[in-house]
Amino acid sequence: MVRDIGCALSLGIPPEYDTEYRSMSTVWSEHPSERGTAMRTIHPEHFPTPAVPLSHGVRAGDLLFVSGQVATAADGSVFIGDFAAEVNSTIDNVEAVLRAGGASLADVVKVNAYLANATLFAPFNELYARRIGDVPPARTTVVVDFGHPDVRVEIEAVAYLGDKD
After folding, report:
1. Alpha carbon distance 158, 98 (integer Å)
2. Is residue 134 part of a domain?
3. Beta strands 138-143 and 108-115: pairing type?
4. Phi and psi at residue 83, in whole multiples of 5°?
5. DSSP label at residue 135
6. Which of 40, 68, 109, 120 is the most exposed place for a label (fewest CB within 10 A)?
């Protein structure tokens, strides 16, 4: 049985579910899905161990799914500060999972972005456009109520890797 290793900060999670952070190399845990396709969970180096049952990323065939990432400080805690820095840190975290799975932002075909307030849409759009490149992927952006009061943006992504191993 493969132990899921993955993503998420302890955003309002009760203390009994918290786990200690651990530093580790990128880990690919392979396990068969019910359909017989090998899936690999991805845990980038220096990312905290998840406090909830999910993975930072999962590679299934030619697709790499990146779980929702938020901005983090160097110690792994939720980033609190300037919105531009928050967006850039969030995208940095998405990129870290992509790299660990053998992909880059150029391979992303779909993004789901979550914002804490509709007034953040214009500044988010400007910052996102600078980072995502000339050929933006399909994207959905919605306003949500985060479980942590300091989180204003979360981004998840799907990348197509084709024949990449």
Report:
1. 9
2. yes
3. parallel
4. -65, -40
5. S
6. 109
| pLDDT tens per residue, range 128-138 | 999 998 999 99
Helices (H), the chain: 83-100, 121-132
In the block, which residue shows the tokens 């396709």?
37
What total of structural domains would you count in the chain? 1
Identify whether 165 is part of a domain. Answer: no
Q: Which residue has the tokens 């300091």?
A: 150
Q: What tokens does 61 get? A: 């065939």
pLDDT digits (tens, 9 = 90+) for 45-86: 888 887 789 899 999 999 999 999 999 887 778 999 999 999
Is residue 35 in some structural domain? yes
Q: What CATH number corresponds to the domain at position 102?
A: 3.30.1330.40
pTM for the whole structure: 0.78
Q: Which two tokens stand for residue 8?
A: 């998420």
- The pLDDT value given to residue 48: 83
Q: Is residue 141 part of a domain?
A: yes
